[in-house]
Amino acid sequence: MEVVIGQSAEELALYAASMVRDVVRSKDHPVLGLATGSSPLPLYTELIRAHRDEGVSFAHVSAVTLDEYVGLPPDHPQSYHEVIRQEFTRHVDIDDARVFSPDGDPARAMDAGERYEKVLSELGGVDVQILGIGTDGHIAFNEPGSSLQSRTRIKTLTDQTRSDNARFFGSLDEVPIHALTQGLDTILDARRVVLMATGQAKAQAIAAMVEGPMSASCPASVLQWHPHVTVCVDEAAASLLEHAGYYRTSFERKPSWQKW
């Protein structure tokens, strides 16, 4: 893992955006993996700014989301398909038809995981996957106990997760009980992973992911298997890393021999 420690979410967003822009500019048909949640928002803001002010085009880009609630239509305000649209894709020139999410229709949910895996395969895989991390070490809806070899599938949401997400709905009763999520093994298929986290609340999860043993108790620790992961954290999120002094705190461009 490359661990980059910055002073602020905005500084980290600039660094992460430079990697995404490299992929967008260097490939004919790049595929971006998009995550919801608060951690990636500064990155999306920076990419939107680059599109608006610098003419960075995403017209040739396809995008895929990590997960989706079962039972919410794609245009529901809290469906992740719509959240990604409102937070990022509608502000740039990605064609709506090129933004893909798991099919959360309950009538088709049983084989939705297999169908989404087929979509990912037909797109040629994800070039750069953006991730956040939960305070318990989960990524996407792969909560502690998830199989490290899991693929896209239906997960039953824990009471804690539903309670945490209730603030986005009118009440806890409105929060779906099930979600479709890319599995940990699916996420590992991405050619590059960029994970962003800020704040003291994420410090324990970051330490477990980067320096702890690989374990289903911290699902994000599976990223230790991946050959090209960049972890962008602020000093608070990095505060429990025992070897923080070995990690990068400079935001200079990559050396010429290093390929994103």
Structural summary, described in words:
The protein has a domain at 2-68 and 75-100 and 125-145 and 188-246: Rossmann fold. 45% of the residues are buried. Strand 2 (31-34), helix 2 and strand 3 form a beta-alpha-beta unit. It has a seven-stranded parallel sheet, with helices on one face. The chain has a three-stranded antiparallel sheet with strand order 4-8-7. It is 28% helix and 16% strand. Helix 1 (9-26) packs across helix 2. It is globular, with a radius of gyration of 17 Å. The protein is built from seven helices and ten strands. The chain is an alpha/beta fold. It catalyses: alpha-D-glucosamine 6-phosphate + H2O = beta-D-fructose 6-phosphate + NH4(+). Pathway: Amino-sugar metabolism; N-acetylneuraminate degradation; D-fructose 6-phosphate from N-acetylneuraminate: step 5/5. It holds the Pfam family Glucosamine_iso.
